[in-house]
Specification:
Blueprint (H helix, E strand, L loop, with lengths): L4 H22 L1 H9 L1 E4 L5 E7 L24 E7 L2 E9 H5 L3 H30 L18 E2 L6 E2 L13 E2 L2 E2 L13 E4 L3 H18 L9 E4 L1 H11 L5 E6 L5 E8 L2 E5 L1 H5 L11 E5 L4 E6 L10 E9 L5 E14 L6 E4 L5
Parallel strand pairs: 1-15, 9-18, 10-13
Antiparallel strand pairs: 2-3, 4-17, 5-6, 7-8, 10-14, 11-12, 12-13, 14-18, 15-17, 16-17
Helix pairs in contact: 1-4, 5-6
Length: 359
């Protein structure tokens, strides 16, 4: 029996939760940022402002005679950051002829893999690649905030700087999330990321990793230590080889055949993952030394979304609409709607390293 568009749609609805779990289990950046919280903005528009804490709320008075007056003056301990939440639509069509050539449960299974499953995974992978590398200008995801300070992203028609600079604190002068970094003119104290430059992994690779990790941990305050690391294949292998018989995996997933696949390497309190997007888009990084590594504290990040009604504008987080009969075509269309922006409250608890691919 030929597969109908209604049957495909029902099967798609049942498939979506499985796809979401599979993707987030496989990609820790989105998974952990989502666990830190989602702000579903139902009003207020695309621009979202939030407070960044840059200092403590009080002042210290040393007692000598005992008659000293304490200062309870008002102290400005927050700065207001701002981001723009872009909306992106991933659209795809299934031709009527394709439906007519498919039949039975096998036909539905094949169509699910070819269309809704592949569309959802493709969209999510492009979003993550943009977040890590800033390569999305050519595929429609260029409005998503990128960690890569060598690149810009463009959510509202204006090019904005990526979050993590590959430079020492004094040389971090960009404006990030509407706040000037500490090294810039009238920069915000404490608004910078940690940085490390490896000249040879054999010589100072792990030393530099420890240095950056400890700086992130010590300056993380109540946010704690960075728990996620992302790097390219050569850098990951450099670190793997340096461990010899001390290799320890800290994260695992189930493969299609049911076997456990270890993925994350343990470094201090952090799990280091090899992310293919850092290899595929190495040209997006402007630093001259080979290799990129991020240390991310997901507790300092959160996710902003737009939308509330799944039947209308959608809730704005990879929500699917359709099917629609396409006018003038023997085809039906679906749309995946994303209105989302990751944001960071505390940059200095995160770090970026370069040169980690050097032998």
């Amino acid at each position: 029996m030929t597969v109908s568009v209604d049957a495909l749609n029902v099967a798609t609805i049942h498939l979506l939760p499985k796809l979401e779990n599979l993707f987030f289990d496989e990609h820790m950046f989105l998974k952990k940022v989502l666990e830190s919280g989602i702000d579903r903005r139902q009003s207020g528009g695309e621009y979202a402002a939030f407070d960044v804490v840059v200092d403590g709320p009080g002042q210290i008075t040393q007692l000598v005679s005992g008659g000293e007056a304490y200062s309870y003056g008002r102290k400005n301990i927050t700065k207001q950051a701002r981001v723009y939440i872009p909306t992106m639509i991933y659209s795809f069509a299934v031709e009527g002829e394709t439906l007519r050539h498919s039949s039975g449960p096998t036909g539905i299974e094949n169509l699910l893999k070819l269309y809704p499953e592949q569309a959802n995974l493709d969209f999510r992978q492009k979003v993550v690649a943009q977040a890590l590398t800033g390569n999305g200008a050519s595929n429609g995801t260029g409005g998503i905030t990128t960690l890569n300070g060598d690149e810009t992203y463009n959510p509202d028609g204006t090019a904005l700087n990526g979050l993590f600079d590959f430079a020492a604190k004094a040389s971090q002068t960009d404006t990030v999330q509407n706040l000037v970094k500490e090294g810039g003119t009238s920069g915000v104290t404490g608004w910078y990321n940690q940085y490390g430059n490896v000249t040879s992994f054999t010589t100072n690779g792990k030393d530099t990793m420890r240095d950056v990790y400890n700086k992130c941990r010590i300056r993380g305050d109540s946010y704690g230590f960075p728990s996620l690391g992302f790097t390219d294949a050569t850098s990951w292998n450099n670190y793997y080889a340096s461990l010899d018989d001390q290799v320890r995996f800290t994260s695992s997933v189930k493969g299609e055949d049911g076997r456990t696949i270890d993925e994350g390497l343990m470094f201090q309190g952090l799990t280091l993952f090899n992310d293919p997007s850092l290899d595929d888009n190495s040209a997006s990084f402007g630093h001259t030394t080979a290799g990129t590594m991020y240390f991310v504290n997901p507790k300092t990040f959160f996710m902003l979304t737009l939308g509330a009604d799944a039947q209308k504008e959608t809730k704005g987080f990879f929500d699917m609409r359709g099917p629609f009969k396409l006018e003038g075509r023997d085809a039906w269309g679906w749309e995946i709607v994303l209105a989302m922006q990751p944001a960071c409250r505390y940059l200095k608890a995160n770090g970026a390293l370069e040169g980690t691919a050097l032998p």
